[in-house]
From TrEMBL:
Catalytic activity: GTP + H2O = GDP + phosphate + H(+)
Source organism of this protein record: Polaribacter irgensii 23-P
InterPro entries hit by this protein: AAA+_ATPase (IPR003593), P-loop_NTPase (IPR027417), Signal_recog_particl_SRP54_hlx (IPR013822), SR_rcpt_FtsY (IPR004390), SRP/SRP_N (IPR036225), SRP54_GTPase_dom (IPR000897), SRP54_N_sf (IPR042101)
Assembly and binders: Part of the signal recognition particle protein translocation system, which is composed of SRP and FtsY.
Gene: ftsY
Protein name: Signal recognition particle receptor FtsY
Key words of the record: Cell membrane, Cytoplasm, GTP-binding, Hydrolase, Membrane, Nucleotide-binding, Receptor
Gene Ontology CC annotation, any one: cytoplasm
EC code(s) of this entry: 3.6.5.4
GO BP terms: SRP-dependent cotranslational protein targeting to membrane
Subcellular location: Cell membrane; Cytoplasm
Annotated positions binding GTP: 123-130, 205-209, 269-272
Length: 317
């Protein structure tokens, strides 16, 4: 990708800053109280910082990892003051995100050697899964790519109808069947249609049921197997959509879906309406799955490609 494409636009940055306002305000309000009256980073400050990170939904395991790293830094520099804590936290969180999120992309792109590029989208109902698919379709289309949607969440009529609305709104073709149809059959028909149309991207919606993990696993496995009859290495990406506003519940959802199928990327939605944006840090660290997209607003353009450096900069600014 060219250097120009890696530039994060001013508009995107403003949207990101605004979307993380609640998280940032909540985090720094608690952080300022944690260091009140202290001039050095001592054991009491670290205990308070631990509470702040856990309360910000970073997660216990990731919080302990951050605290340990800061303890090591403090041990090296005996004169580390609380005024330097922000910079130190920023460095450590950036380091954690860099372990999983290697690239700093800014545009919605797909590999040039995969056509059609097949994305299977998973996630429980209500996390913004269908909306994320619609916004993805819109962004890919803006890049000049031909997109086909597949309504394989046949468990709910509302899911099919909602995806149809997004297909109409973005003016992209959709393959659908009646409620109760075999999801794998929908996926097969979608890929067959996409190949005939010489499409660049296929996005397959799937049912978001978690009440029976065995059934979920079997269904997703079957969808994969049937898709491979049309495109041998499909799906190229399994995107798990999580609702950032649910905090720790998002960790549980990630655990269930990573057990049910091989998740390769994450989209964290609804960050604009919550103070729990720290969940992005914890989930990325604990599951070692890259965060690919974040939702920072309700607008069709408010789904952004996750850029770890810009995220951390907005989180701490």
């Amino acid at each position: 990708m060219s250097f120009l494409k890696k530039i994060f636009s001013k508009e995107k940055k403003e949207t990101l800053d605004k979307g993380l306002e609640k998280t940032k305000a909540n985090f720094f309000d608690k952080l300022s109280k944690a260091v009140a009256g202290k001039s050095t980073v001592d054991a009491a400050v670290l205990d308070n910082l631990e509470e702040v990170l856990v309360a910000s939904d970073v997660g216990v395991k990731t919080t302990l990892k951050i605290i340990k790293r800061i303890e090591e830094r403090v041990a090296k520099d005996k004169y580390l003051g609380t005024d330097e804590l922000n910079a130190l936290l920023k460095e450590e969180i950036s380091g954690l995100l860099s372990e999983t999120n290697l690239e700093n992309e800014t545009e919605f792109t797909i590999p040039a050697n995969k056509k059609p590029y097949v994305v299977m989208v998973v996630g429980v109902n209500g996390v913004g899964k269908t909306t994320t698919i619609g916004k993805l379709a819109s962004q890919f289309k803006k890049q000049g790519l031909k997109v086909v949607l597949g309504a394989a969440d046949t468990f709910r009529a509302a899911a099919i109808d909602q995806l149809q609305i997004w297909a109409d709104r973005t003016d992209v073709p959709i393959v659908r069947q009646e409620m109760g149809s075999d999801p794998a059959s929908v996926a097969f028909d979608t890929l067959t249609s996409a190949v005939k149309q010489d499409a660049d991207v296929v996005i397959i919606d799937t049912a978001g049921r978690l009440h029976n993990k065995v059934n979920l696993m079997n269904e997703l496995t079957k969808i994969k197997r049937v898709m491979q009859k049309v495109v041998v290495d499909a799906p190229h990406e399994v995107l798990l959509v999580l609702d950032g506003s649910t905090g720790q519940n998002a960790f549980e959802q990630a655990k269930h879906f990573t057990l049910a199928t091989e998740v390769t990327s994450l989209a964290v939605t609804k960050l604009d309406g919550t103070a729990k944006g720290g969940v992005v840090i914890g989930i990325s660290d604990q599951f070692k799955i890259p965060v690919k997209y974040i939702g920072v607003g309700e607008g069709i353009d408010d789904l952004q490609v996750f850029n770890k450096d810009e995220f951390v900069a907005s989180f701490f600014r």
